[in-house]
Write a structure and sequence with these properties.
133 residues, mainly beta, eight-stranded mixed sheet, 8% helix
């Protein structure tokens, strides 16, 4: 199994709400190209399009993610995907996660929130810094 750092984007909840309950569907994102799952991007710039914004401060997590044996969809989507595909058709064993490429970034989707943990909260502002002149 592989452990990676990925950027986790969350728009629906504040970071405080996310950290209070990391069990169940709190990290789950719905209505995406690969249906219900927890989405992580390799590139922070991709995640920046989906961050939680309050005032002029944006927030995203840098997360530890175990992707395990993943299925690579490439640029193909599957909006009916509820679980990762079967490793061999007709067998019960499934891939651990799904990898895809969209918006200029590889993304990984996990379907078991126990495979990820938010490690760092990144807060930033796009406002220009005023000089003291």
């Amino acid at each position: 199994f592989f452990l990676f750092f990925f950027f986790f984007f969350f728009k629906q909840k504040t970071a405080y709400e996310m950290l209070r309950s990391l069990v169940g569907s709190e990290m789950c994102i719905r209505d995406r190209s690969w249906d219900t799952g927890t989405y992580f991007a390799v590139n922070a710039a991709y995640s920046a399009n989906y961050v939680h914004v309050k005032g002029n401060v944006s927030q995203m997590f840098l997360a530890d993610v175990i992707v395990g044996n993943y299925y690579d969809f490439g640029r193909t989507s599957n909006p009916q995907l509820i679980y990762p595909p079967e490793v061999k058709q007709g067998e019960a064993q499934r891939f651990d996660s799904v990898k895809a490429h969209t918006g200029g970034s590889d993304i990984y989707i996990i379907y078991n929130e126990g495979m990820a943990y938010p490690t760092y909260l990144i807060s930033y502002s796009n406002s220009p810094i005023l000089s003291a002149n």
